[in-house]
Write a structure and sequence with these properties.
It is a single chain. Helices cover 40% and strands 21% of the residues. By secondary structure, the chain is of the alpha+beta class. The chain has 2 domains: 15-168 and 228-318, 2-Layer Sandwich (BirA Bifunctional Protein, domain 2); 329-423, 3-Layer(aba) Sandwich (Rossmann fold). The strands form 3 sheets. An 8-stranded mixed beta sheet has the order 1-5-6-11-10-9-7-8, sandwiched between helices. Strands 13-12-14-15-16 form a 5-stranded mixed beta sheet, sandwiched between helices. The protein has a 3-stranded antiparallel beta sheet with strand order 2-4-3. A hairpin with a 5-residue loop joins β3 and β4 (76-79). α1 runs antiparallel to α5 and α5 (137-154) packs parallel to α10 (229-244). It starts with 14 loop residues before the first helix and ends with a helix. The relative contact order is 0.11. It binds adenosine-5'-triphosphate (ATP) and magnesium ion. The site of adenosine-5'-triphosphate (ATP) has 17 residues, from β6, β10, β11 and α12.
Length: 424
Amino acid sequence: MEKLQSLRGMVDLLPAHTSLWQRVEATARDHFRRAGVQEIRTPLLEVTELFARGIGEATDVVGKEMYTFVDRGDRSCTLRPEGTASVVRAVIQHGLLSQGSQRLWYGGPMFRYERPQAGRQRQFHQIGLEFLGFADARSDVEAISIAWDLLADLGVQGLALELNTLGSTDDRARYREQLVAYLQRHKDQLDPDSQDRLERNPLRILDSKNPDTQALLADAPTLAEALAPESRDRFEQVKAGLTALDIPFTLNPRLVRGLDYYSHTAFEITSTQLGAQATVCGGGRYDGLVEQLGGASTPAIGWALGMERLVLLLEQVAGEAAVGPAPDVYLVNRGEAAEPAALTLARNLRRAGLSVELDSSGAAFGKQFKRADRSGAAWAAVLGDGEVEQGVVRLKPLRGNGEEQELPLADVDAQKACLVAIAF
Ligand code: ATP
Ligand code: MG
């Protein structure tokens, strides 16, 4: 029979890798806890309209990448391609903003139908932060610093923070006219994608990877020149705030998010170690989104971090070998009376808080000891029919300089004390 395979771009996370993922998740949780950011969990499936309105029809994500289908109730549904729209929907739906500003984080799988390659999958995972109800430039600095410190704490090296401002809605409307006027004059030199964007989403042209288009843009008017004095001031405050926190950044005027509800700060955290998929974390201010989705006008800033890319970076750091954690005890056992007794002993030790790997092979003692050694456990607990008859278990150190002990089989407290005292 033909073997069944996972879908293209849908990747299994195998046991050898889960402990690194768990470390990243635990570190993120801890950073959010210390920063007073609370978790929110939303459904993976939403009505399609949420993303059409919340991300925008003109974007690649909505235009080309969504997993959309009609359900049995004739509803158009979409697997979430990102987290922000769902979080904002939930916050509006449950009236959370009436209780005050919200400092939220989320994590989990996202789905985009794109071409799979290193650091790009169709099901991938993000951890994201959203501050809703925060207008001040300090909240931009705080949001960025939480991402920066998390990545630093995980031990990721060689990161760069790229920063830009998109100005206010008015600034952008003014700039859009200038840019379109300039590009119209050189329309024949634009790549087809950018020609297409000229009407729909001209700011995204700044993001084009096409070298001819980039050359053309070198002489284009810049958004920085179109900023009103207040917007310029605000950007200065963000930069000064980052500098005061010793967070280095470079200005990247090409960094844009092409939708109307994005404004002011936009940023990415990138690594040169990731090839073409260089961005680990991207975010910015989206003051218009809550209103766009039917809530009261609410300033907001957030970011999302790509777990796969982050894990790729961590696996390059020495010492992040893909091995699972070793058990505290490996339970070697063989014999008609010993095997059921071992099951009870394993359960009692686990209840007492120890991690126990129970050998259930029934193989010769020598073979089981080899496996015990390979497991990385500090101790082997040995149970044969002879031990059961005497009512004891033998504890043998596999590492370090503990001494072999024989303890009453029924006395789990004594066993635990022995295992803990020497090994840990
Ligand atoms: P890219 O330009 O790489 O497609 P994006 O602008 O579409 O990124 P965002 O929507 O800002 O990405 O998502 C935030 C982060 O999520 C990205 O910086 C990246 O780390 C991660 N990410 C996005 N799409 C994918 C994907 N298909 N596979 C793995 N990670 C992804
Ligand atoms: Mg993308």
